[in-house]
TrEMBL record:
<comment type="similarity">
    <text>Belongs to the cytokine receptor-like factor 3 family.</text>
</comment>
<feature type="domain" description="Fibronectin type-III">
    <location>
        <begin position="177"/>
        <end position="270"/>
    </location>
</feature>
<dbReference type="InterPro" id="IPR003961">
    <property type="entry name" value="FN3_dom"/>
</dbReference>
<protein>
    <recommendedName>
        <fullName>Cytokine receptor-like factor 3</fullName>
    </recommendedName>
</protein>
<keyword id="KW-0175">Coiled coil</keyword>
<dbReference type="InterPro" id="IPR036116">
    <property type="entry name" value="FN3_sf"/>
</dbReference>
<keyword id="KW-0963">Cytoplasm</keyword>
<comment type="function">
    <text>May play a role in the negative regulation of cell cycle progression.</text>
</comment>
<dbReference type="GO" id="GO:0005737">
    <property type="term" value="C:cytoplasm"/>
</dbReference>
<feature type="coiled-coil region">
    <location>
        <begin position="2"/>
        <end position="36"/>
    </location>
</feature>
<dbReference type="InterPro" id="IPR013783">
    <property type="entry name" value="Ig-like_fold"/>
</dbReference>
Length: 444
C-alpha cells in the first residue's frame, strides 16, 4: 500500500473515531435533554397535584368553618328568640285569662238585669260584689315595641374583601427554587452537604435540609438554621441518599420550594472508638466515648477501632461533657496503637491537651490553642509533604523521610506545623487519654 493510501486510511480511521465520539457525545446530550424534560414534566405534575390538593383542603376547611360559624349564629338567634318570647307568652296568657273573666262577668250582668223582680236584688248584689273583686280598673302592662328585642344579623362585607385579597396573593409558582445544593462531599459514615442561594433578591432567614434513603422512606429534617453547610452523620456506607434544601425568607413563616434533590453517598466507614477499653463507655454506634469512674486511677489511651483517618479529610472531636482537667489529657491522631501508653503525648502522635497545649511526637509546641471546654470542637486536617522520594516506586511502606502538614483547629484559632515521620503512612488511628471521669467525646 502506498504512502498516500496509508495516510488516507489513517485519516479515515481518525474520522470514524471522531464520528463515534461525536455520536456518543450527542447521545449523552440527548439523555441529558430527556432528563431535563422529565424533570420539567415531573415537577409540573407534582406542582399541579400539590396545588389541587392544597386548595381542595382549603375549600373544605373554609366551608367547614363557615358552616360552624353559621350554626353558632343561628343558635344565638334561637336563644334570643326563646328568651324574648317567653315573657310575651306569659303576658298573653294573663290577658286571655282577663278576657275570659270579663266575658263571664258580662254574661252574669246580663242575666242579673233580665231576671225577675223577686230575685233581681240578689242577682245584682252578687254581680256588683263580684265586679268589685275582679278590679276592672287594673290592666296588665304590655311592653312597647321599642322595649321588645328586634333580632338582626350584623354582617361585615370587609371579610369578603379581605378574603379575596388574601386568596389573590395566596401561593406562588416558580420555575427555579431560590437555593440549590452545591456540593456533596463524602466523609467517614457521613456526607457534608453544601448549598448556595441562587436568587439574589431572596433574603434568607433560615435554611432547611432534609434527606432520605433514595430507594424508600420519607424525607426527614436534619438541619434548620442560617449556615450553608451541614455534616449529615450516621449514614450507612455504599448507600445512596437523596438530599434537598429550601429556605425561609426574612419575616416569613412559609418555606420556599425545595431544591432539585441530589444523590450522595459515602464509601468511607464511620469513625468508631475501640470497644472493651478499660475506663471508657461507648455509645451504641461507638462514635461517643465517655470516661467512666470504673477505673479512676489509670485508664490509658482509648484508640479508634481501626486506622480510619486518611490524609485530606477533616477529623473532628466534639466535647459534649467535661470532667476535671489533667496535664496528661490529650486528643489526637497517631501512627499505631501502644497499649501500655498512658497518654497520646508520645512519639508517633500529634495531639492537643485539654488545657490547649499542642504536642508533636511527645514534645510540647510553643504555640497553644484555647482550653477545651464544654461544646468545644477540635479539628485535625493533614496533607502529605514528602521531603525526599520514599522509594523508586513511591511505595509508602518502604520507609524514608515522610512529612505531613498538620492543621489543628480549636475555637477560632488554629496551628499549622509539619509532622516528620520515619515511614510513610496512608491512614492513621485517632485516640484520647482522659485522666478523670466525666468527659464525653464525639468523633466524626
Amino acid at each position: 500500500m502506498s504512502i498516500e493510501a496509508e495516510a488516507l486510511l489513517q485519516e479515515a480511521k481518525e474520522s470514524i473515531e471522531a464520528a463515534q465520539n461525536y455520536r456518543s457525545e450527542l447521545q449523552q446530550r440527548l439523555h441529558g435533554l430527556s432528563q431535563a424534560r422529565k424533570q420539567v414534566r415531573g415537577s409540573s405534575s407534582q406542582a399541579r397535584e400539590g396545588l389541587k390538593r392544597h386548595f381542595s383542603e382549603l375549600q373544605t376547611a373554609v366551608t367547614r368553618l363557615l358552616t360552624e360559624r353559621l350554626s353558632v349564629l343561628l343558635s344565638e338567634v334561637d336563644v334570643i328568640e326563646q328568651d324574648s318570647v317567653r315573657p310575651l307568652d306569659d303576658c298573653q296568657k294573663l290577658i286571655e285569662h282577663g278576657v275570659n273573666t270579663a266575658d263571664e262577668l258580662l254574661r252574669e250582668g246580663e242575666v242579673a238585669i233580665r231576671c225577675g223582680l223577686g230575685e233581681k236584688e240578689d242577682k245584682l248584689g252578687s254581680f256588683t260584689k263580684k265586679a268589685l273583686q275582679i278590679q276592672l280598673d287594673s290592666l296588665p302592662e304590655v311592653p312597647v315595641l321599642v322595649d321588645v328585642p328586634c333580632v338582626s344579623a350584623q354582617l361585615d362585607d370587609s371579610l369578603l374583601y379581605a378574603l379575596r385579597d388574601r386568596v389573590s396573593r395566596h401561593g406562588s409558582v416558580s420555575s427555579h427554587p431560590p437555593v440549590q445544593i452545591e456540593e456533596l462531599q463524602e466523609r467517614p459514615g457521613s456526607v457534608l452537604v453544601r448549598w448556595c442561594k441562587v436568587d439574589d433578591e431572596f433574603a434568607v432567614q433560615d435554611y432547611r435540609l432534609q434527606y432520605r434513603r433514595s430507594v424508600s422512606g420519607q424525607y426527614e429534617d436534619t438541619y434548620i438554621g442560617p449556615e450553608q453547610e451541614f455534616l449529615v452523620l450516621h449514614l450507612d456506607p455504599h448507600t445512596d441518599h437523596l438530599f434537598r434544601v429550601c429556605a425561609r425568607g426574612e419575616g416569613r413563616t412559609e418555606w420556599s420550594p425545595w431544591s432539585v434533590p441530589q444523590t450522595g453517598y459515602t464509601t468511607l466507614a464511620p469513625h468508631e472508638w475501640c470497644p472493651g477499653s478499660e475506663g471508657y463507655i461507648l455509645s451504641s454506634r461507638r462514635n461517643i466515648a465517655m470516661r467512666s469512674d470504673s477505673s479512676p486511677s489509670k485508664a490509658g489511651v482509648l484508640y479508634s477501632n481501626a486506622p480510619t483517618y486518611f490524609c485530606g479529610q477533616t477529623l473532628t472531636f466534639k466535647i459534649s461533657a467535661t470532667g476535671q482537667v489533667d496535664k496528661r489529657d490529650s486528643i489526637g491522631v497517631c501512627v499505631g496503637c501502644e497499649g501500655e501508653a498512658e497518654s497520646l503525648q508520645r512519639d508517633q502522635a500529634v495531639c492537643i491537651s485539654t488545657n490547649g497545649a499542642v504536642f508533636v511526637n511527645g514534645k510540647e509546641m510553643t504555640n497553644q490553642l484555647p482550653s477545651i471546654t464544654l461544646g468545644s470542637a477540635v479539628t485535625f486536617d493533614m496533607e502529605v509533604v514528602n521531603l525526599l522520594p520514599i522509594s523508586n516506586n513511591n511505595n509508602l511502606s518502604d520507609g524514608g523521610n515522610f512529612k505531613l502538614r498538620v492543621t489543628i483547629g480549636s475555637g477560632n484559632r488554629e496551628v499549622v506545623f509539619d509532622w516528620l515521620l520515619d515511614q510513610g503512612v496512608d491512614c492513621l488511628f485517632f485516640g484520647c487519654s482522659l485522666a478523670h471521669p466525666g468527659w464525653k467525646v464525639l468523633v466524626f
